[in-house]
Amino acid sequence: MKLFIYHTPELTPTDTIPDCAIAVDVLRATTTMATVLAAGGEAIQVFSDLDTLKLVSADWDADKRLRAGERGGAKVEGFDLGNSPLDCTEKLVKGRRLFISTTNGTRALQRIQSAPAVLAAAFVNRAAAVNYLLAKQPEIVWIVGSGWEGTYSLEDTACAGAIAHSVLQQTNTPLDELAGNDEVVGAISLYEQWRDRLVELFHQASHGKRLLRLGCHEDIKYCAQVDILDVLPIQCEPGVLKILG
Ligand code: MLT
User: Fold this and answer.
1) Mutate to test the pocket of ligand 1, among 32, 70, 109 (most ligand atoms within 8 A of CB)
2) pLDDT tens-digit profile of 30-42?
3) pTM: predicted TM-score of the whole model, two decimal places
4) What does the pLDDT read at residue 176?
5) Would you put residue 95 in left (φ > 0), alpha (ψ -120 to 50) or beta?
6) How far is the CA of 172 from the centre of ligand 1 (A)?
7) Residue 45: how many CB atoms within 10 A of its CB?
């Protein structure tokens, strides 16, 4: 297995596809997706564009769907939800499909959707993503951070580093064999430096600061929990993710 980390969708190569691609948007889209599926959501369907989301979800029974729209960290008017994982209770999401469009996370998923295996990971389901890699042994793996409008996000790269760190430890592979690019080495170091202080790291991050300004303190604490959800959102058709199995 060779791992490649890209900090943003924009930095991801366009002339090749990997065997497996993992989108990471710790704050908060991929954390929310894992939470919804863990709470019994039927599926997640992602859109980069809000109007397309409205159009496609209109064909779905109103009691079987939820529409989530987030821009700039805030809920878009007229949508059922924004992008807070804490709103995604079992009572609300069970048996329903989440149609979601967020500023960066859903764009990252769309960017990698032609890969044969597409996963969504965050700190909350890091172990589930690692277990998938160890079981399936894809040859080339990309981990793509969502970033913020084309720029680097600390929390996504730290999570990519957490995934790489765990694969490294569990396979005893030498780092220079596992690392496909320099970003892997940098991301592992970032994770190792902050692994016991993830909330503090998120407070340093520009999007963490944005969420704090919006009053989302509890979201930050929730998203900083590691390996609490044993679910892995995996693409079953372009743009639609379900639990494996
Ligand atoms: C995004 O897609 O940029 C985010 O998940 C933003 C957020 O709602 O925190």
Assistant:
1) 70
2) 999 999 999 999 9
3) 0.97
4) 96
5) left
6) 34
7) 21
